[in-house]
C-alpha cells in the first residue's frame, strides 16, 4: 500500500450516482464487503477501515440507465493488502455466485473483474511485490494473462473471508476519455502524473512514485465520445490526494495555464478533465 500514501499523489475515493441506493448499498456491503461509514436518505459513504471513505453512493430518482459509448468510468480498482486476501475474496465471490466478467494475471498484479448492479466496472486486485516488477526504458511490463484461479484459491478458504481488510484502499481508477492526447496533457502536464505504460494510441497508464498505475486512460468507447447525461447512472467524481497544499496549488496553477476548468470553494478544489470527468483535488 506504500504507493497509495504520502509522499505519492494517488486516487483515494470514487463517488457514484445511482437510482437505487438501497440496492447499491446492499451490493457493496454484502458482495464487496465494505461497511457503512455515514448514511442519509440520499447518500451512503462506505469504508474498509471504519474511518476513511473509499466509495460514496448518491441517490437520484428517475435516472436513465448507464449509457454506453460515453466517457467516464471504465472501472475503479480496490487494492487488497495481500494475495491471501484476494484468494478469500474469490472464495466469497464464487460462494455468492455473483457473475464474474474476467480474471487476469497482469504480471504486476492479479485481478478479478465484474460490475455492480448499475453496470459500473469493478476490479478487485492484489499487487505482486514491486521489487519483482520489470521496467524497461521507464515503462513497466504488464500483460493480460489468464489468472491461475485454482492456485489463487489454494491460498485460503471461504472461512478466511471476513469482509474487506482494514488496510484495503482504492488502488487505481481507469477512465474512458474522448481524446488520449488531450487527456495525457491534462493528467501529466497538469496534475503531475508520469506515463508508465502505453498501449498503442488507444490507452496509457500513469502514476507517481513508480507505481504500475494510479490512473488508466483509454479511448475504447471511441474517439470523440461524449460525456454521460447528467440524469444518467454515472461516476460523479473521484478524489486525488496530493502530499501537501503547495503541490496541490501547483497543480491548479498548471491546469489554469492549460485552460482547464477548475472550481474553488473554500478548501474544496474541483477540476474537470477534457472529457468531462470531475476530480476533487485534496490533501
Automatic annotation (TrEMBL):
Keywords: Metal-binding
Domain of life of the organism encoding this protein: Bacteria
Transmembrane segment boundaries: none
Keyword set includes Metal-binding: yes
VOC domain residues: 10-127, 169-283
InterPro entries: Glyas_Bleomycin-R_OHBP_Dase, Glyas_Fos-R_dOase_dom, Glyoxalase_1_CS, VOC_core
Keyword Nucleotide-binding among record annotations: no
One Pfam short name: Glyoxalase
Protein name, as recorded: VOC family protein
Amino acid at each position: 500500500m506504500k504507493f497509495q500514501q504520502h509522499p505519492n499523489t494517488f486516487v483515494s475515493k470514487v463517488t457514484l450516482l445511482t437510482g437505487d441506493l438501497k440496492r447499491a448499498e446492499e451490493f457493496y456491503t454484502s458482495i464487496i464487503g465494505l461497511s457503512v461509514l455515514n448514511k442519509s436518505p440520499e447518500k451512503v459513504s462506505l469504508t474498509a477501515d471504519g474511518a476513511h471513505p473509499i466509495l460514496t453512493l448518491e441517490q437520484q430518482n428517475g435516472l436513465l440507465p448507464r449509457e454506453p459509448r460515453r466517457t467516464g468510468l471504465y472501472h475503479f480498482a480496490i487494492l487488497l493488502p495481500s494475495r491471501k486476501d484476494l484468494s478469500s475474496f474469490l472464495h466469497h465471490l464464487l460462494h455468492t455466485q455473483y457473475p464474474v466478467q474476467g480474471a487476469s494475471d497482469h504480471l504486476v498484479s492479479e485481478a478479478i473483474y465484474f460490475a455492480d448492479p448499475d453496470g459500473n466496472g469493478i476490479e478487485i486486485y492484489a499487487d505482486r511485490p514491486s521489487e519483482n516488477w520489470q521496467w524497461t526504458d521507464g515503462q513497466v511490463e504488464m500483460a493480460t494473462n489468464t489468472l491461475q484461479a485454482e492456485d489463487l484459491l489454494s491460498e485460503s478458504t471461504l472461512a478466511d473471508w471476513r469482509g474487506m481488510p482494514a488496510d484495503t484502499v482504492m488502488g487505481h481508477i481507469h477512465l474512458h476519455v474522448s481524446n488520449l492526447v488531450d487527456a495525457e496533457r491534462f493528467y501529466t502536464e497538469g496534475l503531475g502524473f508520469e506515463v508508465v505504460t502505453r498501449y498503442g494510441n488507444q490507452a496509457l497508464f500513469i502514476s507517481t512514485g513508480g507505481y504500475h498505475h494510479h490512473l488508466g486512460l483509454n479511448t475504447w468507447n471511441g474517439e470523440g465520445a461524449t460525456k454521460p447525461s447528467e440524469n444518467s447512472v454515472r461516476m460523479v467524481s473521484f478524489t486525488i490526494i496530493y502530499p501537501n497544499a503547495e503541490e496541490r496549488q501547483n497543480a491548479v496553477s498548471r491546469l489554469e495555464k492549460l485552460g482547464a476548468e477548475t472550481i474553488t470553494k473554500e478548501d474544496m478544489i474541483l477540476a474537470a478533465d477534457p472529457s468531462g470527468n470531475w476530480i476533487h483535488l485534496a490533501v
